[in-house]
Amino acid sequence: MRVLLHICCGPCSIMPVAALREEGAEIRGLFYNPNIMPYTENLRRRETLEAWAAGEDLPLIVQDEYQPEEWLRNVAWRENQRCAPCLSQRLERAAAVAKRGNYDFFSTTLLYSVRQKHELISELGQSIGKKRGVKFLYRDWRPYWRQGIERSQELGLYRQQYCGCIFSERDRYLPQPGHPA
């Protein structure tokens, strides 16, 4: 089973990669996250992932063209519903890369987070997969949340404090009802 795994950051990759490898999957990671702002945060997450992946012998595709304007246009006037267009943008890219690379499945490390909307990710992944002609692999990696945090701390990996977008960064200080922090 060949899986293209969209990766949001190094710490969130640890348990999904381990679980997929335990299933016998051949994995390639994809770093594509136009939502991560500011640039220094984006760079720090990418560099942390690259260093961790090198140690894990995990091949990566890095599509890190830093163009926050596209992401901002995608969520403009929908800030309170920003997660759906943000997730769609990243899953669309993952599905396109998976299709082009003849992967059996695509998935995302966002399914590791206890703060993400799993039902929404699953719905979008299934829909995008059907449209693109590549299967979305849903796994609930939330039970590994604590273990992944502990492992990332043992490894000394940089752990970010917000999802990535300017709104989630704001919400960690000024929480908004109904949105993941």
Notable characteristics:
alpha/beta, 181 residues, globular, Rossmann fold
Short description:
Keywords: 4Fe-4S, Disulfide bond, Iron, Iron-sulfur, Metal-binding, Oxidoreductase, Queuosine biosynthesis, Redox-active center, tRNA processing. 47% of the residues lie in helices and 11% in strands. With 181 residues, the chain is an alpha/beta fold.
Count of helices? 7
Query: What is the CATH superfamily?
Result: HUPs
End-to-end CA span: 34 Å
Uncertain stretches of 5 or more adjacent residues: none
Computed CA radius of gyration, to the nearest angstrom: 15 Å
Do you know the CATH architecture? 3-Layer(aba) Sandwich
Class by helix and strand content? alpha/beta
Domains, number: 1
Q: What is the C-level CATH assignment? A: Alpha Beta
- Identify the overall geometry: globular
| CATH topology name | Rossmann fold
Mean residue pLDDT: 92
Q: Work out the helicity level.
A: 40-55%
Strand order of the largest sheet: 3-2-1-4-5
Series of H and E elements? EHEHEHHEHEHH
- Largest sheet features: 5 strands, parallel
User: Strand share of the residues?
Assistant: 5-15%
Instruction: Report the count of strand segments.
Output: 5
GO molecular function: 4 iron, 4 sulfur cluster binding; epoxyqueuosine reductase activity; metal ion binding
Pathway: tRNA modification; tRNA-queuosine biosynthesis
Organism: Desulfoferula mesophila
Pfam families: QueH (PF02677)
